[in-house]
Amino acid sequence: IYALKRAYGKKESVDELKNKVAAIERLLPNESFKASNRLLLNLHLTQFAGTKQWDNYCALIDKVIQEETPETRKSNPSTLLWPAMEMVKEAPVSYCANALKWSAHYEAMENELFDQILISDLHKMISKKQGKTEEAKVFAAKSDGLRKQATAKGNMTPQIMKD
Predict the structure, then answer these.
(1) How far apart are CA 144 and CA 113, in angstroms?
(2) Residue from 54, 70, 163, 156 nearest 115 by CA
(3) Are 102 and 57 contacting, i.e. CB atoms less than 8 angstroms apart?
(4) Residue 156 near residue 150 (C-beta atoms within 8 A)
(5) Does the predicted model carry a pTM greater than 0.90?
(6) Predicted confidence (pLDDT) per residue in 87-113, tens digit
């Protein structure tokens, strides 16, 4: 998956990786392998980002959020907020509204400190991209405060890595 991401980034060897992508898609769906769904999600998001298919990228994240169960919702914030940040970096500014929607979805729940940092960082990135410099500074300060709090508590590990 990361080789595919690098290939898209460098705009090289993408055609060669298509067979590997197909193999990954055949091998990963496995109910006994807990991370298979996350890896497939990452694979598809990487493909959509690499080919600038931002509507499909957003639709996939929306679908994952709609299909959340109480069990998956707990580990989904970091799984989906990282891709949201990547989208904000790469996609046109008009897609920031989707990232704000996803952020609001996770802000509404009780979050680990790590997830709170991701949410604040995402807001900072969106504000910067939208040219809202002062708002970005507020979120940057909030993120710094949350990082200090998490470091003091020894809580800088995302939930996904605790599972």
Answers:
(1) 12
(2) 156
(3) no
(4) yes
(5) no
(6) 999 999 999 999 999 999 988 887 788
**What tokens appear for 140 in the block?**
């940057």
Does residue 127 surpass a pLDDT of 90?
Answer: yes
pLDDT tens string 42-52: 889 998 998 89
Rounded to an integer, what distance in angstroms lies between the CA atom of residue 58 and that of residue 49? Answer: 10
> Residue 83 has which token pair?
């891709």
- Rounded to whole angstroms, the Cα distance separating 116 from 121 reads 9
Distance separating alpha carbons of residues 85 and 83, to the nearest angstrom: 5
The set of residues, in sequence order, having a beta carbon less than 8 Å from that of 119 and lying 6+ positions away, is 77, 81, 103, 106, 107, 111
Q: Got the DSSP string for 23-66?
A: HHHHHS--TTSTTHHHHHHHHHHHHHHHTT-HHHHHHHHHHHHH
DSSP 11: T
Q: In percent, how much of the chain has pLDDT > 70? A: 89
Q: How far is CA 134 from CA 122, 123, 137, in A?
A: 15, 12, 5
Distances (CA, A) of 151 to 54, 82, 128, 147: 35, 20, 26, 6
Q: What tokens does 89 get? A: 């970096």
